[in-house]
Amino acid sequence: MDRDRDLLKLLYHRMYLIRRFEETAGELYRRGTLLGIVHLYLGEEAVATGVCSALRADDYITSTHRGHGHVLAKGGDPKLLLAELCGKATGYCRGKGGSMHAADLGLGVLGANGIVGGGFGIATGAALSAKKRRSGQVVVCFFGDGATNQGVFMEVLNMAALWKLPVVYVCENNGLGEYSRYEDVAVTSTPIGARAAAFGLPTAEVDGNDVLAVYDAASSAVARARAGDGPSFIEARTHRLSGHHEGDVGFSRRYRTKEELDEQKREEPIGRFRSWLTAGQALSAIEIETMEGEVERQMQEALEFLSQSPYPDAAELWEHVYA
Amino acid sequence: MPESREMTMAEALGEALAEELSRDPTVFLIGEDVGRPGGVYNVTKGLQEEFGEERVMDTPISEAGFAGIGVGAALTGMRPVVEIMFSDFLGLAMDQIVNQAAKLRYMTGGQAKVPLVIRTTMGSGRGAAAQHSQSLQAWVAHIPGLKVVMPSTPADAKGLLKSAIRDDNPVIFFEDKMSYKLTGPVPTGEHLIPLGVADVKRIGEDVTLVATSSMVQVALAAADLLAADGIRAEVVDPRTLKPLDKETILKSVRKTGRAVVIDEGYLSYGVTAEIASLIADEAFDYLDAPVKRIGAADVPVPIARPLELAAIPDEAQVVRVVKALFGPSERARSGGAQHAPGGG
Fold first, then answer.
1. Which of A85, A122, A139, A319 to mutate to test binding with chain B, by most B CBs within 10 Å of its CB?
2. What number is the average pLDDT over the span A137-147?
């Protein structure tokens, strides 16, 4: 099928930006510039990109502890995000949230979340709000396979279906919940989507490393939600190419062999999309390199912004506890 | 004096909800049995008929789910009033309250605002046993970012609930089950009580009884008994634990020189400890006796009537504790003069 060239460019640009952002964040972590707990989205870029590119600017998303990709895919500013990761006053949250709480309410990013499954209630509530306000907004709730074992998942599926809320539940199934393999801690006799299907939600299973497949699945789910036909569920199968968090090298061999990781790396979404684009001559190699150069420039800018950014003043400790 | 009518606390709360539903289209009620059944204590009776199913929503028994839905709706332009039927059930929704609602504004550097009210019930006295009788205000009062309200009269209940709904922060609003049928005058017309302003429910000179919610009536009854013995007790009702009106409490204690703090939560690590510590820190020089605390016994609330009664503070206990603050030969002071620092 013929694809809109602007869309293809947008998808590639966003995925590549997420990739370079995460590589940069990993590097800053290893250098000690970035402290705390940082979960990278390396390898999963096609999911956030495909889904968020199917959204309107005023639509909402809720994100996860592995949230940088969602923020950037919704149009977030890498400068503000990188500064936030490093706790700088110039960051998205004035250095109070960091990696696990990055949010841009103006872009409809209702926040990454340090609690696995923490977005379920918020996303479903935002969908109820959109419906009550008759705003036509749609909400996407991102979460991992691990979060589907939280009880609140079942609770919100029931209410979203009961009230026909405009929400799309997007499960990023990377097969790993923290340091455990999904099949070791959950029944796998049915696909994850069967849990949502039990509440009557339409479900789709897509190759989460195929950005166009993700985009198509998200587009139909979003259209359905926007038309008032209720919630749906997408399982996007992907791989987490980094550890659970940066610095978890001691654990990584306990849940995944080197051979398995190598195989997963061969399936990563960006090289794959690039090959598809050039093979079909949808975009030229020069166009792609131009975009990559633009991303490098964005990352340079973000690093310069970071180096000039101060930490918050001590007096800020007491600000923003209450409205 | 403004005109007023006698109403029960349940009626006053229902009136507050109806007025706010009428005033602001973003307000809606959500919780178990709040709609068609009208609330397990009839507080929301008739509201769904009046405002429709979209404004007064019954939920499945899914506290975590609908509390979280309240957070998300509050974050995106609505003013939900969520009901958690018993404060004992807060545990099921605690992540939504403590990790999401309370922290979103701070974590987002002031971007977010969460104008959410969670109404819940507290208090024993109904033989409802260990999982339907607790007063768990200390749990939430511990958390930065939450406001905590504990009305003791119908008028306060109405005025505080309306203010809570208009507040831009998450507010946990505790209603004492035994007080729902308490009657009292409620002003007609718009009636708002700001959060963070205590109320002196009885003026006295000899001892300050700081009492919350269900314990205000207990303190007032004790004050009557004490008066017969010549001890004039002042009863201070903080009305909100967060924000806490420290000045009104301290002013009273500086006057009386003695303080007993009474709250129906468990004694250990409870609300009474916080307020007693405040008094010890900031009114030490005015004290003639140690600050005393009275709370629920540190046991799961039992069902047998004599055991339940023994677990919960009553006026006889308050009288005993207050009398022990006065030496055997000491008589209650008369004259009511301002008590001097270090004197007595």
1. A122
2. 98
Q: Which residues of B are catalytic?
A: 63, 132
Interface contact A125-B99, CB threshold 8 A: no
Contact present, B4 and B155 (Cβ < 8 Å) = yes
Q: Does B52 touch chain A (CB under 8 A)?
A: no
Question: In angstroms, rounded to a whole number, what is the distance separating the alpha carbons of residues B175 and B192?
Answer: 17
Share the mean pLDDT of chain A.
96
Q: Do B65 and A130 touch (CB under 8 A)?
A: no
**How far does the CA of residue A262 sit from the closest CA of chain B (Å)?**
37
Tell me which architecture the domain covering A5-305 has in CATH.
3-Layer(aba) Sandwich (3.40)
Q: What ipTM was reported for this prediction?
A: 0.96
CB contacts, 8 Å: B54 with chain A: 132
Residue B282's SS3 state is helix
Domain definitions of chain A by residue range: 5-305
What is the helix (H) or strand (E) element at residue B8, kind and residue range?
Answer: strand B4-8
Report the alpha-carbon distance of residue B253 to residue B256 in Å, rounded. Answer: 5
Mean pLDDT of chain B: 95
What is residue A252's predicted lDDT score, i.e. its pLDDT? 80
Rounded CA separation B58/B61 (Å): 9
- Spell out which residues of chain A touch residue B73, defining contact as CB-CB under 8 Å: 125-126, 128-129, 132
Chain B residues with CB-CB distance to A121 below 8 A? 64-65, 67-72, 96, 100
Residue A286 CB burial class (10 angstroms; 0-12, 13-18, ≥19): exposed
B247 touches chain A (CB under 8 A): no
Interval B85-133: pLDDT, tens: 999 999 999 999 999 999 999 999 999 999 999 999 999 988 999 999 9
Kindly report the nearest CA distance between residue B197 and chain A, in angstroms: 17
Q: CB distance A111–B54 less than 8 Å?
A: no
Cβ(B322)–Cβ(B218) below 8 Å: no
| Residue of B21, B104, B108, B195 to mutate, testing the A interface (most A Cβ within 10 Å of its Cβ) | B108
Show the domains of chain B with their CATH numbers: 4-187 (3.40.50.970), 199-325 (3.40.50.920)
> Cα(B22)–Cα(B322) distance, rounded to whole angstroms?
46
How does pLDDT run across B221-267, given as a tens digit for each residue? 999 999 999 999 999 999 999 999 999 999 999 999 999 999 999 99
- What chain B residue is nearest to A139 in terms of C-alpha separation? B72
A198 and chain B in contact, CB less than 8 A: no
Distance between CA atoms of residues B127 and B302, nearest Å: 8
Token reading at A64: 């996860």
The vertex-B94 CA angle with B91 and B95, nearest 5°, equals 140
- pLDDT for B337 equals 37
Tens digit of each residue's pLDDT (9 = 90 or more) over B286-338: 999 999 999 999 999 999 999 999 999 999 999 999 999 997 655 444 443 33
Q: Distance (Å) from the C-alpha of residue A321 to the closest C-alpha of chain B?
A: 5
